[in-house]
Amino acid sequence: RDNPSQLFVCWCEVVGPQGDQPPWIIQKFPSNYKNEEILKSVPQFTFPCNFDNSTVQHFSFVLTSLDSKWTYGFCRHAPGNHTALVLLSYLPWHETFYRLLNHLSELMTTNRTGDLWACLQSLYQAAVPKPGSEVTIPYADNK
User: Fold this and answer.
1) pLDDT per residue over 19-72, tens digit each?
2) Which intervals hold domain UDENN (predicted)?
3) Measuring CA to CA, which residue among 8, 51, 46 is closest to residue 25?
């Protein structure tokens, strides 16, 4: 995409397949994200096949629109979880988004959902940093 204005466009939590039921999104941020074409594809790409779930796994996928624009999906699967976390972005920053997914997962597993939503809101509103600069996102009492 030309000159993306934000770090990510959507965060999702996706439940893996349950018997004959395919994977599905159980929550997303922002809640008003409505690109149905992308939202329909995310569960399938988040759980493309059965795999070893004994360690944290990160991977990415790329969705291409009809006008040849890319949306990157960054996934995090954790051992013992029936859900995965996904960030969708126009930026191909694999390491940055994997670290961010680890942090968001930590907020979820420590029952700090208020901090999770505050962090997502701050990230969503943050501008894309200039090359070579650091990203610092204050949230929830400047944590």
Assistant:
1) 899 999 999 999 999 999 999 999 999 999 887 778 999 999 999 988 889 999
2) 7-143
3) 46
Q: Which residues, other chains included, contact 111 with Cβ-Cβ below 8 Å and sequence gap of 6+?
A: none
> How do residues 80-97 score in pLDDT, each as one tens digit?
889 999 999 999 999 999
Band of residue 1 on the pLDDT scale cut at 50, 70, 90: low
Two structure tokens written together for 20: 């004959």
SS3 (DSSP) at 85: strand
DSSP-assigned letter for residue 17: P
Collapse the DSSP code of 143 into the 3-class scheme (helix H, G, I; strand E, B; otherwise coil) and give the result: coil
- What is the distance between the alpha carbons of residues 118 and 113, in angstroms, rounded to a whole number? 8
At 119 the three-state DSSP class reads helix
- Identify the CA nearest to 47 among candidates 25, 72, 71: 25
- Omega cis (within 30) before 79: no
**Structure token pair of residue 49:** 């096949």
Return phi, psi of residue 35, to 5°.
Answer: -70, 90
pTM for this predicted structure: 0.91
The CA-to-CA distance between both ends of the chain, in Å, stands at: 31
